[in-house]
Task: inverse folding
């Protein structure tokens, strides 16, 4: 598991890429990736192109990010998830909260 | 092999000249006797003939090393005899020295024109005679050495070609045993040498759909073919077992990184044609950009990765393009040999010509034949300087793809489907060992479950986390209601893990096939006190997004057909049922 971030030149977008299993052990790294990013003023993009699996604590972490990013006002996209990851997100109804782009 | 040293040719009379057999033909008895005596004195064996006719006949029988011919003789003169002897000698160098009392330039020239190598004037001078015999013997031996070496080279070459052909048939068995003959694939592969530096692989996935891989190794011939072998093995092996494109490309990269010397790599593109979803997934590294043609619309797909075999696994990226591809849409891929194909003037076929073909073609038409024809007629009689590879993939419903007489479509998914295992983690192992990958790997032996690994991973990890964190460590998920709570939760988890003693978690899995698919049953039991499952069951709600935890059990209920607790709540049992995907549905 590894988490990397990149920010657009004007600072308006933060891309967080998660590689491998996304589970409780990623908690600290995931939190570090977004904390201090600017809360609701930033667009977040979670790149799951290399995320293999996720568990329910990963779902909790995504909700924490959403909370940090302004709750209902948050702009968070989850992009490039594989069909397994997509399925878990769908089952959990996360499409209601996040913009999920395949 | 022993080689003669140059001294052997130069040492006079001792080794090189020993046992030479010399044919002397002269109709003059006296001259013949004198010459015979001189030659014998110099240590050679002599055969004599009285005229040209006899000289030719004796040559056939005696196979002399050097021939001394009088120019003017009855029956056949020396000139005629020389021609016949040279003919009979074939590839062998038989020096012919004319014996003559003539001294005018024209006569002497005639001797050489008739095939003679030199002449010797009468009366004979023994010193000159010896020098000439030695000189011609050296030439004769050099000629023999050259011939031997030439024959050896020819032998080696024959041998090597034979070996390459055997190796090629092994290579073809490994590399080309897939589905390249499927009706949705048209391809051109032109090998520069016996082996092709370009590799084209296609294989049906067990779940329907198809993987295609185009690879272009640096160089061609044997080195490229050696890299292609493990590539093909991994590609076919993992595709048939149901692994995803990204897993396969990652594994191929890992293998090539290990086996290829620095500076050798493989530009490649791997495509997952999801026939039933009308979708395509593409990983591309280092190859020219491709074309996806939908109707008359052209979409370019650019390489966004380094070639395979360069990056270590940590640095290697597997992000892919995913896009819609409707039935009848076509994907074109080629190796740089197509673009760089040059005509007699050295002009290259080039991107512009290729793009023009795509732009001018009628909507929806197959362009494969047109591109192939144009490229081949462009280069004309020129030898292509690189491998030419071109492939056209057409999206079509999977039921149109079942190949007559070929059952490699689904039947090759082998793996145990009827089994049971029990895995118990005790004591210290609970602290620092994660049993989920091991359990997942065992379950993934069932071919049909591999495409569901994401769901099964989530099921196993939820069951195990619950047993460990709630069952054994007595953690309360309610802690995870804030970011700081999350932190505190996992800190406490670690503390309690370190004090864990004399406990166990037992994972039991049982898989049984049935006519339409199969059922995976997983039971996880822990040595903790259990919990009031009636209460907890009701609590979890996937719709309540205000809570950051408590999703585990509801998620299990959605993924599994049943979730049941036993005993004091320290034992949970789930059933996951799967059904075979009908072809084409």
Result:
């Amino acid at each position: 598991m590894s988490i990397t971030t990149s920010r657009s030149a004007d600072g308006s977008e933060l891309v967080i890429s998660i590689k491998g299993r996304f589970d409780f052990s990623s908690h600290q790294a995931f939190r570090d990736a977004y904390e201090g990013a600017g809360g609701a003023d930033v667009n977040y993009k979670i790149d799951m192109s290399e995320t293999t699996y996720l568990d329910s604590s990963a779902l909790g972490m995504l909700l924490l990010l959403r909370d940090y990013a302004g709750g209902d006002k948050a702009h968070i996209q989850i992009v490039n998830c594989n069909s397994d990851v997509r399925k878990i997100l769908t089952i959990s109804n996360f499409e209601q909260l996040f913009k999920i782009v395949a | 092999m022993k080689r003669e040293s140059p001294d052997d040719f130069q040492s006079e009379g001792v080794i090189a000249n020993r046992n030479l057999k010399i044919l002397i033909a002269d109709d003059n008895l006296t001259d013949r006797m004198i010459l015979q005596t001189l030659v014998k004195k110099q240590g050679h064996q002599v055969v004599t003939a009285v005229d040209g006719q006899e000289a030719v006949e004796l040559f056939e029988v005696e196979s002399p090393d050097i021939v001394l011919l009088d120019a003017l003789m009855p029956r056949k003169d020396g000139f005629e005899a020389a021609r016949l002897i040279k003919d009979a000698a074939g590839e062998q160098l038989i020096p012919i020295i004319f014996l003559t009392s003539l001294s005018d330039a024209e006569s002497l020239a005639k001797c050489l024109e008739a095939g003679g190598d030199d002449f010797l004037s009468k009366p004979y001078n023994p010193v000159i005679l010896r020098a000439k015999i030695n000189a011609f013997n050296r030439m004769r031996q050099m000629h023999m050495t050259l011939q031997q070496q030439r024959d050896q080279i020819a032998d080696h070459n024959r041998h090597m070609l034979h070996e390459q052909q055997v190796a090629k048939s092994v290579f073809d068995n490994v590399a080309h045993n897939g589905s390249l003959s499927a009706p949705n694939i048209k391809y051109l592969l032109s090998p520069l040498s016996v082996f092709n530096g370009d590799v084209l692989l296609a294989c049906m996935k067990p779940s329907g759909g198809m993987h295609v891989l185009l690879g272009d190794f640096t160089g061609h011939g044997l080195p490229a073919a050696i890299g292609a072998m493990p590539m093909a093995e991994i590609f076919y092996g993992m595709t048939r077992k149901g692994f995803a494109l990204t897993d396969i490309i990652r594994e191929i990269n890992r293998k090539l990184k290990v086996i290829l010397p620095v500076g050798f790599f493989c530009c490649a593109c791997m495509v997952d044609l999801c026939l039933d979803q009308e979708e395509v997934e593409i990983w591309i590294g280092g190859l020219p950009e491709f074309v996806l043609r939908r109707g008359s619309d052209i979409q370019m797909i650019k390489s966004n990765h380094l070639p395979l075999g360069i990056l270590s696994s940590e640095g290697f990226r597997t992000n892919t393009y995913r896009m819609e591809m409707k039935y009848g849409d076509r994907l074109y891929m080629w190796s740089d040999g197509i673009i760089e194909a040059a005509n007699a003037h050295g002009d290259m076929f080039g991107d512009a010509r290729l793009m023009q073909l795509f732009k001018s073609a009628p909507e929806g038409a197959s362009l494969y034949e047109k591109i192939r024809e144009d490229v081949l007629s462009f280069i004309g009689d020129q030898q292509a300087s690189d491998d030419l590879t071109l492939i056209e993939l057409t999206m079509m419903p999977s039921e149109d793809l079942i190949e007559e007489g070929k059952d490699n479509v689904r039947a090759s998914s082998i793996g145990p489907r009827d089994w049971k295992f029990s895995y118990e983690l005790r004591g210290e192992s609970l602290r620092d060992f994660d049993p989920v990958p091991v359990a997942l790997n065992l379950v993934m032996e069932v071919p049909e479950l591999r495409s569901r690994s994401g769901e099964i991973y989530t099921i196993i990890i939820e069951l195990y986390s619950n047993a460990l964190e709630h069952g054994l460590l007595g953690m309360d998920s309610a802690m995870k209601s804030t970011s700081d709570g999350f932190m505190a939760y996992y800190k406490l988890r670690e503390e309690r893990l370190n004090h864990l003693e004399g406990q166990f978690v037992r994972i039991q899995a049982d898989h049984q096939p049935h006519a339409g698919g199969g059922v995976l049953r997983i039971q996880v039991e822990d040595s903790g006190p259990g919990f009031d499952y009636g209460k907890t069951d009701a609590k979890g709600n996937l719709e309540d997004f205000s809570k950051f935890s408590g999703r585990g059990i509801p998620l299990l209920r959605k993924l599994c057909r049943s979730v049941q607790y036993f005993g004091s709540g320290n034992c949970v049992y789930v059933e996951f049922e799967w059904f075979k995907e009908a072809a084409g549905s």
Q: What stands out?
A: Residues 2-101 of chain A form a domain with the Transcription Regulator spoIIAA fold (CATH 3.30.750.24). Chain A has one domain: 2-101. Chain A touches chain B through 36 residues (CB under 8 Å).
